Structure prediction request, 492 residues.
Amino acid sequence: FIYSCTPTQLNTAVENKTNEKNKVNTVVFTPQPIASISVQNNTPITVISPNASVTNPTFIPIPSHDLQNTAQPLPITNTTPISPAVTVISKPNPAPTTSNTYYENYLKNNPFPSHGGNDPYVALRENDRQTNFSVSGLDEKEALGKRIFFDTNLSEPKGQSCATCHDPLHSFTTSSSKMVGGITPGVKILNGVTFAGKRNTPTAMYLATDPDFSFGKPIDASPNDESDYSGGTFYDGRAKNLEEQALMPLLANAEMNMPSKTEVILRIQNSIYAPKFRAMFGNDIFSHIDDAYTKLGQAIGAYERSKELNPFTSKYDYFKKGTVTLTAQELRGFELYKSEKKANCASCHVLEVNNNPAVFTDFSYDNLGVPKNTNNPFYNMPTVLNPDGTSFLDPGLGGNIIEIAQKGRFKVPTLRNSSKTAPYMHNGVFNTLKEVVRFYNSACTPGNPDNWPVAEFDTGRNCTEIGNQGLTNQEMDDVVVFLGTLDDGYKP
Prediction:
């Protein structure tokens, strides 16, 4: 547990955790030299400080998720003796100007004890490092789901959590710096090769708005529209809803690589949040593996349906409320986005439906003629993972619904936070939004003036609604600028 607080606050927190009968190692970070620390009940404490002489510090209260932006802790003079349970780790070099770097450097070399992994980002951002279980306005089930979402014990080997790929600092996708060829590596290593899946990590945000996978009329259907597949999660719709989706990466050998449901539940049972899991789902829940596994998905789903992942705080949202105005270029981009005769984005990335806030998708599936990503590491994976080698073609929905007509169709994603979630498309083939807009603009233009590579599946591609839009370079820039208004966290 990470605490940074006054001795009284620290002692209270440690007492509370001890009363829960959870054996934890509390880590206290202090980038400046400190004097001392006192704790009660001999609960294990690790103090990380630039000096080896520790007698009694005061720490400024810091929510764990705000460590990157905190003020530095301040020393005081008080002479309470050091508890025998305190471990002092000397850091003789001067502390850096930003505390975040200091914490991360420590964690990279010292696996965080309550997680069994060494992912510093997960350890730093886990908001559940507090004495009360409710976190950031979440209800009990959402807070439990959040703890599970950030638990790096739930992979084999340990070290990867849901948040490793769905990183809150990157709109719940993977930082491009952690990707290889547009794909997020897993944790399994075979003969020196780190397993990786075939697809780019989609955002986990706004999945709460997705309907269950089904065959029927799309949400924006006109009377003459035919029934089709829509909804569900993953690019190929193989999970009916996000509760099902949340469970699948745990057992996927290219992702978290857990050997079985039983092993997953055993690790939940041995976790620090196990008492909360029992309290919520029944004292004997861990005796029923399948039921416990389903409840695990429900808890993660509750978190993914919370306001943390569905905030609706973009400039566009405030614009629709009349709170702010868009710039001239943003308005030009918005008009192009809506126009059937120009960009025509709204034909699939629809705006408001039935007065609900726009999530910029109709949840349908489409074949855009996306080319192969030749840098995708999946092509070089062992045959146990990819028996087709470099000839692999991703069938998309056609791998879930075994029909030739579904091959090459992928789920239409939300465009919220799209400027923050590069790379793009199901295989990460495009690195910028400008590339994506250019592809939409000219991929079906006679003569292929922009020299797009051949599509993975050319048969059945949608060249009716997109691909020959005739946008100028300035108009493409305007659309990209408008898409930036869909990023959450705007301050009006």
Summary: The first strand starts at residue 2 and ends at 3. The chain is about 25% helix and 5% strand.
